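Weekly sync notes, structure subgroup
Attendees: PM, AL, DS (notes)

Item 1: joint prediction request from the bench team. They want all two components modeled as one assembly rather than separately. Inputs as received:
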Amino acid sequence: MAPATSSPPAAPPVDAPVPGQGESRPRPPSWLRALLISLAVVAAGFALGAAWYKYERAASIQPPVVKRTTDGWHITAQQQREFSGLGLNGTRLLWQNGASIEYLDLASGRLRLLGPGSGMRTTWDPAVGDRYSVWFEAERMESLAARAVAYDTRSGRRWTLAEIGSVRSYPAISGDVAVWCSAAALGSPAINGARVGNGATFEVGPGDGAPVVFGGLVVWAASWKGPFYAHELASGTSRPLVAGLTNGRLTGLALAGRTLVWGQSPEAPGSAAGVVATVDIDGGETTTLASGVSGLSGPAYDGRTVVWGERTASGDRVIGRRLDGGPAFVVAATDGTVKEVAVSGDTVAWIAATGASGYELIVMRLPR
Amino acid sequence: MSPAIPARRLRRTKPHPSVSRDRLLLLLLVELWLLNVADLALTRYSIWLGFATESNNVMDYFLSAGTVPALAFKVGIVTLGSLLLWRLRAYRVATVAAALLTGVFATVVAYQVLWILSLR
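Output from the run, pasted for the record:
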């Protein structure tokens, strides 16, 4: 009977030739060969990691296609993803690409994916200032536990700025002050804010509208049709603003310095009675910059130039007008429908929905 | 009478000592150790940047306690594993295991490096 186990035979000599292989000589031990084999293992791992990264980018993240043009950038969404939440400040361009928050440095052309963070599935339109940007993230759209996330364009760090409850508006930012409208669980909506630099949060006051901020001044519309309220952060005082509002739905609100710019459009589809207007916060007449506008989008305002999108019989176009004088001028005629516009200095950007590729984002220089 | 358990099941792996393989194993373990430290450094940096969270609960516990406890735990575990593999160096499977571990760590490190570079 054969034994169930047997003791192992004596180990062969070190690197001895295998019996029966004739005259083949054993290769002497070599540090170089061992090093090359071990480095090949590491190189194979690196290649696998790079392939993993490339596959994830292509299959899951699906970044937009970014192309430099003669006077700007042309960005196209992939897989019919929707672009929104356009924010432009200097060379910093942020927008929402599906559920992703994208950041393009217009100076270098570097595209960075800022959000959503791990465990988060939903984001809301971002806002970008001269250093920080802020947006909201949550596990799902209906979440009562959304959080405001901040990103520092200088250090490249992102962090949770505040737990905000349920989202009632997109954020706005100026300097290191971010404001938004949110409601805590079982609470009433309020205009809230935070100092991005030190994380201190504060309540501006009760209200349910999308606020804008510039310096220490916060303005929001109490409803989609107004009226406007202004709040001075330094003094803590709020007051209603006297502005010549029409009965239309607000399409955009922008604040720079002490000047508020807004757009209103009739709710009846196809109506060409949209208005772009401006008013001095400290009092004064409402100035109408454009009227009889069809398909109004925006406006955006950077302190000098107001930009908006409008529809004409020959297609959509982006219009600009400088508040320091001069008539309105055509920035560009666009393909598709202009959804959002942004302006900063001599740069203008807009999002257009096109039939063929879904959404595209155009960045170009303002005509002089 | 036949044995209750087939003999081949109880056969023990034979040791095959080899100086060449010892050298390869030593280099693989050194690379594994370095990649392990790189993995910790990259993970710590990603968390500092705010773009990552540690999904391993045990490491998350040590990372929450600080960099030194995390470093001690992670380096300690891999050092212990490396010493174990080195003690078993007479067996080919020890070298295969070290190569697999080194390859996996290299994969993770390469992914992290590319991911962090995309954020900078």
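Discussion: The CA atoms of residues 29 and 41 of chain B lie 18 Å apart.
Action: AL to compare against the crosslinking data before next sync.
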